[in-house]
């Protein structure tokens, strides 16, 4: 009896260890019997094991999270925002190094903040540009959109993992306008200035004009940036890059003609409007020729982001 009891005990202890090797066990057979009763048909030991294995595999391969959103400020595009996806927890070498973003920006939500900042820089007296002329005030309006792909060379490596190289496509526009004014002290006379080699003058000792630059751009974007973790998914991010565009900024100049005279070599006479328009066009053409060589629209932005 003692020998039989020892063999029985050994069988009970070793049976669970070989359950996956198609050795019947009372527990699996009981589960199989329950399933067979519910499905009105027999079910094998192997099918029970396979069903449990499939459920375990599904729970281990759930799709990882990585949605990210961000809000920041830029000197050239105002209030910036983006939505995207990147996940450093992927097992794949490449999958955890790539991310995508859709970027958008506008100065409209922070227009007053930007203009107040410009006015603060100019001060009460404006910016002196010579010949008793000053830029009295300025305004900037801009917006842009971009589809971007981020590449993180170091993956999830501590410290270095936040650095990225970015490429994509961007388009938008920027409009800058400045009011130019001048005044001279003394008795009422003429305010003289020269444009395109011709002397002009306003009566009343004052002058007013408007200079404007408009830039519509579109093209591939290349840049770099990084994000630094703070806590609970919150991060600080910085981006810097350029848009390679084939369109340069365009200049325009408005010269009021009220009380405007021109020097004919011996006297001040009424301004010749067609001649003035031609002089303005020639002056702008000279300035435009220099701008045409500058076809890289800069973008620098920083802000906060959150990654789910």
Topology (elements, then pairings):
Elements: H1 2-14, H2 26-39, H3 45-60, E1 67-74, E2 78-86, E3 98-106, H4 111-122, E4 127-130, E5 133-151, E6 163-183, E7 190-195, E8 198-203, E9 206-231, E10 234-244, E11 250-254, E12 260-263, E13 268-270, H5 273-291, E14 296-307
Antiparallel strand pairs: 1-2, 1-14, 2-3, 3-5, 4-5, 5-6, 6-9, 7-8, 8-12, 9-10, 9-11, 10-14, 12-13
Helix content: 10-25%
- Class derived from helix and strand content: alpha+beta
* Number of helical regions: 5
Largest sheet: 8 strands, antiparallel, barrel
Q: Strand order within the widest sheet?
A: 1-2-3-5-6-9-10-14
Tell me about this structure.
With 308 residues, the chain is of the alpha+beta class. Helix content is 24%, strand content 46%. The protein has five helices and 14 strands. The strands form two sheets. Strands 1-2-3-5-6-9-10-14 form an eight-stranded antiparallel β-barrel. Strands 7-8-12-13 form a four-stranded antiparallel β-sheet. A hairpin with a 4-residue loop joins β12 (260-263) and β13 (268-270). The longest helix is centred in the last third of the chain and has 19 residues, at 273-291. It is elongated.
């Amino acid at each position: 009896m003692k020998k039989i009891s020892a063999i029985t005990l050994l069988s009970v202890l070793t049976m669970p260890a070989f359950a996956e090797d198609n050795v019947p066990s009372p527990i699996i057979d009981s589960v199989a019997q329950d399933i067979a009763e519910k499905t009105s048909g027999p079910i094998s030991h192997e099918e029970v094991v396979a069903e449990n294995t499939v459920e375990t595999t599904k729970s281990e391969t759930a799709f990882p999270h990585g949605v990210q959103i961000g809000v920041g400020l830029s000197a050239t595009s105002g209030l910036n925002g983006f939505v995207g996806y990147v996940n450093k927890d992927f097992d794949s070498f490449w999958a955890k190094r790539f991310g995508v973003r859709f970027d958008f920006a506008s100065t409209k939500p922070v227009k007053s903040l930007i203009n107040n900042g410009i006015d603060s820089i100019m001060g009460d007296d404006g910016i002196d540009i010579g010949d008793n002329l000053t830029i009295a005030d300025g305004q900037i309006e801009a917006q842009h959109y971009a589809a971007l792909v981020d590449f993180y060379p170091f993956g999830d490596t501590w410290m270095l993992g936040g650095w990225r190289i970015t490429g994509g496509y961007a388009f938008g526009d920027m409009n800058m306008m400045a009011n130019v004014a001048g005044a001279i002290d003394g008795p009422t006379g003429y305010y003289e200035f020269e444009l395109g080699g011709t002397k002009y003058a306003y009566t009343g000792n004052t002058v007013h004009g408007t200079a404007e630059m408009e830039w519509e751009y579109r093209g591939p974007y290349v840049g770099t940036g990084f994000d630094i973790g703070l806590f609970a998914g919150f991060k600080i991010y910085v981006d810097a890059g350029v848009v390679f565009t084939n369109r340069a900024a365009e200049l325009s100049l408005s010269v009021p003609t009220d009380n405007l005279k021109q020097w004919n070599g011996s006297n001040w006479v009424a301004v010749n409007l067609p001649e003035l328009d031609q002089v303005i066009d020639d002056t702008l053409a000279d300035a435009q020729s220099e701008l045409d060589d500058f076809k890289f629209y800069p973008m620098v932005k920083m802000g906060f982001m959150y990654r789910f």
